[in-house]
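Hey all, quick one. A colleague (J.T.) asked me to put the magnesium ion job into the tracker so the inputs and the C-alpha cells live in one place instead of scattered across chat threads. No bug as far as I know, just bookkeeping. Sequence used:
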Amino acid sequence: GLKKKEVNILCLGLDNSGKTTIINQLKPSNTQAQEIVPTIGFNIEKFKSSSLSFTVFDMSGQSRYRSLWEHYYKESHAIIFVIDSSDKLRMVVAKEELDTLLNHEDIQDRKMPVLFFANKMDLRDALSSVKVSQKLCLENIKDKPWHICASNAIKGEGLQEGLDWLQDQIA
Ligand code: GTP
Ligand code: MG
C-alpha cells in the first residue's frame, strides 16, 4: 500500500494538564499504559491513523523541563497544547508559556496547525472551551490555523474530534 505521511507532533502544556493521558488514549489499546506518571524530560510515542503516521514528542510540563520544548520546534509539523480547564490559578501561566511559544523564532511565521485541548472538562469547576480560549486570547492567533476542543482524557471524550481536525490541516 501507500506509505503513510510521517508527521511530528509536539505535545505541550503545563504539568498535570493531561498531555500523557491524552497521547496514551490515542495509541492502540494494546500498547496503552495502565498507569500514567508525571513525565520526566519527554517521551516519544508513535501511532497511526488512516492516512498519517504520527511521532509525538510528549514533553514534561514541569517548569524545570520547559526549557527543553524549544529544541523540538523546528522538526515539528503541528502542536497539541493542553490546558487543565479547572486550573484557574495557573491559566495565566499557561498563557505566558503559550505566548513565549508563539513568539519563538522557530514557530513565528510558520503556518503550523495548533490544536488546543481544554482538558478535564468533567471536573465541576472546569471552564468551557470558549472561556479557556478567551483566557488564552486565542483569537489573537492570526498566522496559524488553530482549533480548541473540550476533552476528558480519562474517558477519551473530545480527542478524536481534535485529531480529525489536525489530520485535515496536515493532509
Ligand atoms: P506532566 O507530564 O507532568 O507534564 O503532566 P501531563 O500533562 O502529562 O499530565 P498527565 O497526563 O500525567 O495527567 C495528570 C493528572 O491529571 C493525572 O492524574 C490524570 O489522571 C489526570 N487527568 C488527565 N486528564 C484528565 C481529565 O480529562 N479529567 C480528569 N478529571 N483528570 C484528568
Ligand atoms: Mg506527561
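Adding what we noticed when we looked at it: The first helix runs from residue 19 to 26. The chain has a mean pLDDT of 97.
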